[in-house]
Design a protein that fits this description.
Elements (H helix, E strand, L loop, with lengths): L1 H22 L20 E2 L6 H6 L1 E2 L9 E6 L4 H16 L4 E6 L3 H11 L5 E5 L3 H5 L7 E5 L5 E6 L4 H15 L2
């Protein structure tokens, strides 16, 4: 009888260990299979372009950033954490350490333009991912997400959730120095 009592007790101990290990992980540090791999290529209309014909003519592609270390920030006007992150991103962009490109995700163009007018525009360019396909290519879990891409077009860092001053200070800025910006 005691032998059968030890089996559930052992299983419980194993589950408790797995739970303890899982609770010690930062949910913002979900490993991305894209780290160390080329950033997915895309060509999307620029938010800055006005009118349907201008949107068709004015596209953004990551190839424009080749030879530069740059940051891609995925955001949307309907995203609460994006509202929290935005002032941090505006202040970071003012430092001029690296160009910041916005990827407006599954949003309405006029609402996105109004947002940037009202809250400030930290982006050198904003690409419109209206259907979310580029977000899927980048493995976006939800907005906001931020990627640091090196001079060769390789993803070096991914932040899930809002950027904070602490994340910028402890992770992004040291990585920028490492990448030679």
């Amino acid at each position: 009888m005691k032998k059968y009592f030890l089996i559930p007790l052992g299983l419980f101990a194993v589950l408790a260990v797995f739970l303890a290990v899982g609770l010690n992980h930062d949910p913002h540090e979900v490993p991305s299979p894209l780290i160390g791999k080329p950033a997915p290529m895309f060509s999307l209309p620029r938010l800055e372009a006005s009118g349907a014909t201008a949107a068709d003519a004015a596209k953004f592609t990551p190839q424009e950033m080749r030879g530069k270390v740059w940051m891609l920030n995925v955001w949307a006007t309907w995203c609460g954490p994006c509202r929290q992150e935005h002032p941090v991103l505006v202040n970071f962009a003012k430092l001029g350490l690296v160009p910041v490109v916005g990827l407006n995700y599954k949003d309405k163009r006029d609402e996105a333009q109004r947002w940037l007018t009202e809250f400030g525009n930290p982006y050198v360019a904003t690409a419109v991912d209206a259907d979310g396909r580029v977000g899927i290519d980048y493995g976006v879990y939800g907005v906001p997400e931020t990627y640091l891409i090196d001079k060769t077009g390789t993803i070096r860092f991914k932040q899930i959730g809002p950027l904070t001053d602490d994340v910028l200070r402890s992770k992004v800025i040291p990585m920028l120095k490492e990448l030679g910006t």
